Amino acid sequence: MSAVATNALIEAGIKHVSPSSLNRFLRCPENFRQRYVCKKPDRAGHKALLGTADSKAFEDFYVARLGGGPGISLSDCEDSFRDHLLAKAEADEYDLEGETTSSLIDTGIPTIRAYYPVAQSMPDPIAVEEKILIERDSLPVPILGYTDVEFEAFGIDRKGAANKSVHPDWRLQTRIYSAAKSKPWGLHVTTRTKVPAVYTPSDGEQYEESWSTAKADRTVRMVGQIVASMESMILMFGVDDPWPQNGYVHQWACPRCPYKSSCPAWA
Questions:
Q1: End-to-end alpha carbon distance in the chain
Q2: Is the Cβ–Cβ distance between 152 and 182 less than 8 Å?
Q3: Which terminus of the chain has a lower count of CB atoms within 10 Å, N or C?
Q4: Is residue 264 in some structural domain?
Q5: How far apart are CA 85 and CA 83, in angstroms?
Q6: For the chain, how many structural domains are there in total?
């Protein structure tokens, strides 16, 4: 990787990449530029708030199980969910999009109750919300991320969704975590349906990313190619002019984009 290209990334403020920033760039380079180069704020919506509060509640559960602890009760897990949701909403970190905190709590509690028995059935974790950093000569900047839960033989990333389908952008995330930790990485998907359901690797191979040394090397190479595309955008278009607006042909990227009003694709 050339020093010129690497310097271009650093000067643009891109000192590392993460699964979320990589997926954002793949969806729409212009959206990525607005968020990570121009540093414009991006307030996520109420679904993201539900996901964050749910994740924090079970982070508390799994942390309590580190070292063979019993975890926390279902009641405490529900209280943790409420507390995290209310704190995030009060801090105005999310756009509630017309929803109330009461309605969001009513939506989220059933998913807490659905996943709790699954969490209880898991082995003792060895790490929760652990930082991962992948540095290679082939990568101009490191890959930085935070895993959900790691066990001795595998890891998991928890997701909430409208249905049981595996979202394509989740696959890159689990591949990166698997490569970083040298073990399989699974998905635990909780559906936000009238009767929530939980899907895990036991329900199909689509919910688990296998690991091998060769696959890990391919994953790092894949990320390196994505980052090379970021570099090419900087060198071709600069940091002040718009990058390609690929979100215009994406199924949902533009309707959810906070920068749509100033985007050339919609001018």
A1: 37
A2: no
A3: C
A4: no
A5: 6
A6: 2
